[in-house]
Amino acid sequence: MPESQHTVVVMTRAGCSACERAEQDVERICGELGVAWSTADVDTDPEWRAEYGDRVPVILVDDVEHGYWSVDEDRLRAALSE
């Protein structure tokens, strides 16, 4: 079976400790599952800031909002295993 075609983006903000924890969780989970992931700073884009700024970190799976404030590991693993 080929590696997952899913992508994960963690919408973050500089100086956000919850964002740092979410990035560590996503890095570990995606690493184990072979899923590409990245981060994006909400403060670099006015639309992102308006959409996600009060809920960072926000986790996007395949460009769809999956969760925010923290990583629900079981739920993320389930979404990436589909």
From TrEMBL:
Highest taxon of the lineage: Bacteria
Pfam family, one: Glrx-like
The protein's name: Glutaredoxin-like protein
Organism encoding this protein: Saccharomonospora azurea NA-128
